[in-house]
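Let us work through a complete example step by step.
Step 1: write down the sequence.
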Amino acid sequence: MWCFMEKDYIIRVRNELVPVSEEIYREYYSHRRRERTLEEKDARHGLLRYDAWDAATSNGADALPSPGMSPEELTERRLMSEKLNACLPRLSGEERDLVHALFYCGEPLAALARRLGVPRKTLADRRDKILKRLRILMESPER
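Step 2: predict the structure and record it as tokens.
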């Protein structure tokens, strides 16, 4: 059984009550209140944590640019992304679905082939053909 101090200070740890010293008790609840205060302040200012962007297949922090990227590299990446997004509508719906599943959702080729009931090699050939077509579309001048 517990041996309580002069005044009982108890904190809950994983649904279990744990006796602690007054110093630990005050520090524990001070820290919890500080976290809540910061979360409330962020909410008032419309700030989101990176983990709020997390999805099943991606991590919110991945959306941030790499600290080692130069402004030129960031600009080039943005321009290529814009060009790619402009070319995607020129693909058929089935081609866009394949690109989305493989590259945006990160679904493995073998898993996608099983889900669609298509041989993996056939799907790989389709992927390669689509990528070749996208490369040509991206290199051609816009019309």
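Step 3: interpret the result. Residues 71-139 form a domain with the Arc Repressor Mutant, subunit A fold (CATH 1.10.10.10).
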